[in-house]
Amino acid sequence: MAAHPYRSTSRSTKAGPRECRHGAGHSRKGRSGSSPAISRPSAAASPPKPITQVCRVTLPMNEARARARAPPTAIRARAPGATNDSPVPAHGAFDLSHRVRRSPSVLSRRRRSDRRSPRAARLGIAHHLGGGRNRRGRLARWGNLATAPGGDADRLAVRRDAGGMRWIYIGVSVSTVALIASAIWTLLTLRAVAQPGGGVTPLAISVTGHQWWWEATYPGAEPDGTFRTASEIHIPTNVPVRLELRADDVIHSFWVPKLAGKTDVIPGRVNSMWIEARTPGVYRGQCMEYCGVEHALMAFRVVAEPPAQFAAWRRRQLAGASTGASIAPGYRVFARRCSACHAIRGTESGGIYGPDLTNLSGRATLASGTLPNTPANLARWIAHPQAVKPGARMPDIDLPPGEMQPLVAYLETR
């Protein structure tokens, strides 16, 4: 028998199911009459198939294997149920960018020696990028892969696109310049608002946060010119005011929404901020850092008034109690039951643990904005403060009516 030009003599004379698959014909005959057997093909009847025809069978198998190994994609739907997700532009753009970004790693796998044919490996790369065959049987153009010129559909030309990195460098440069400019503008703005404009003498006020009330101290040029008030801060309009914030117990947060932002008040540290009211009015403030059970009832008022009215209010605070107030019946009750914690300017009462009650009648609220300042509410607050503001540091004071009425009348004149 003459040797086939594409096969050795040993392989052409040896029978097997692999040759029978490509033979011109085969007969089935059982050895014992019951089970069929595959017969050896006859060389005279039909010559063996050339290897190019074998490749026509092998390549579709390798192509299917390459497609099976490729990751799934939702860009090209093949069923009605998959069309709900495929037309989403953002999903398709992300999927395509992800595939193109991974193309270098796929190209590097191309150099590995595997059992797949070169054409099947190239088909796997094209399928990984989302490509396939077009109507003419040529590989579709995707990413940086294209069919080679000359009509050879089995070869792929890899072209290097350097323009992508150039756009990345431009984007990074523009973003860096924008961020640096924004940081410089922010620092300049913070520096401008950190201090008031020149030409105006600022007013300094020390504000201390307690559980659960605020204390404002107005320093004077002399020791007698310093006075304190509670939960009500008076400021002149069109005058910058520097607030020095301190905390006596826990962390608080000072916030007047219509005048300035929030500033933390931390024990053992002095924070400062500037406020300036352009129009007269009453501005509500609030502690914005949880500081205990009565955090919600720790409000205060900022009263902005013209400079003349502010000067008159300051003189009233410095004047203190009127002449003869120390001999009033109400003062005797105050000195015996309240002077350990509270103070009234111009008297011997000098308590420092509670709010200063000088000119209490001029304040609009009691207990840091909890109650309106009326004689009935004042008597209720003195008798049962825990019922009004549970957790307050002030204990309940059980006074008989003969002492409560003179005490309320005395405090309402202050």
TrEMBL record:
Residues 32-46, 69-82 have a biased composition (Low complexity). Keywords: Copper, Electron transport, Heme, Iron, Membrane, Metal-binding, Oxidoreductase, Respiratory chain, Transmembrane, Transmembrane helix, Transport. The keyword Transmembrane helix applies. Residues 1-51, 64-120 are annotated as: Disordered. The chain crosses the membrane at residues 167-188. GO terms for cellular component: membrane. GO terms for biological process: ATP synthesis coupled electron transport. It comes from the Bacteria. It catalyses: 4 Fe(II)-[cytochrome c] + O2 + 8 H(+)(in) = 4 Fe(III)-[cytochrome c] + 2 H2O + 4 H(+)(out). CDD domains: CuRO_CcO_Caa3_II. InterPro entries: CcO_II (IPR045187), CcO_II-like_C (IPR002429), Copper_CuA (IPR001505), Cupredoxin (IPR008972), CuRO_CcO_Caa3_II (IPR034236), Cyt_c-like_dom (IPR009056), Cyt_c-like_dom_sf (IPR036909), Cyt_c_oxidase_su2 (IPR014222). Its main location: membrane. GO terms for molecular function: copper ion binding; cytochrome-c oxidase activity; heme binding; oxidoreductase activity. Belongs to the cytochrome c oxidase subunit 2 family. Subunits I and II form the functional core of the enzyme complex. Electrons originating in cytochrome c are transferred via heme a and Cu(A) to the binuclear center formed by heme a3 and Cu(B). PANTHER family: CYTOCHROME C OXIDASE SUBUNIT 2, CYTOCHROME C OXIDASE, SUBUNIT II. This is Cytochrome aa3 subunit 2.
